[in-house]
Peptide deformylase (Dielma fastidiosa), 185 residues
Amino acid sequence: MRLEAKDIVKDTDPSVRQKSEKVQLPLSDEDRELALALVEYVKRSQDPEISEKEGLRPAVGIAAVQVGVHKRILGIVIPYEEDEDEVFCLVNPRIVSHSVQDSYLKGGEGCLSVEEVHEGYVPRHARIKVRAYDVLQDQEIELRASGYAAIVLQHEMDHFEGVLFYDRINQENPWQEIEDAEVIE
């Protein structure tokens, strides 16, 4: 399975607001193929040559609902300059604990499904603990994430509930500082 730019469901489509279903384990071949295709799409989108050739918007994450499949599956690739990329290929991820402190990206967030610009801070938990089935390790895992990785994980998991990043922006004052929050550059 190979996902293309045309497969991305936009926020103008009401289906992007539908809740995603929990995935049956053990994983079916079809669900495993989709999970790996999500990660592969993100990797391709981050390669400037491939993304230009295929018309892909650069991304760090994607949820299955964004390609029209209402299942709790996500793929994330966080590139690091010095270190190896951080790759998540998760099924049924859920936050089991989180920090009291919030965080947000200094420049706001974006989304493959959202073409219109929505400016403002998006409050997220600064640190989270997640339980999920990891497709790459083929086992249940528990992971801790903070900073940018925590924000990306929460963004993608929001898709499972039909929530888009701009739903979390303060509509009256989008750039209002969030008290005691960690600002991620």
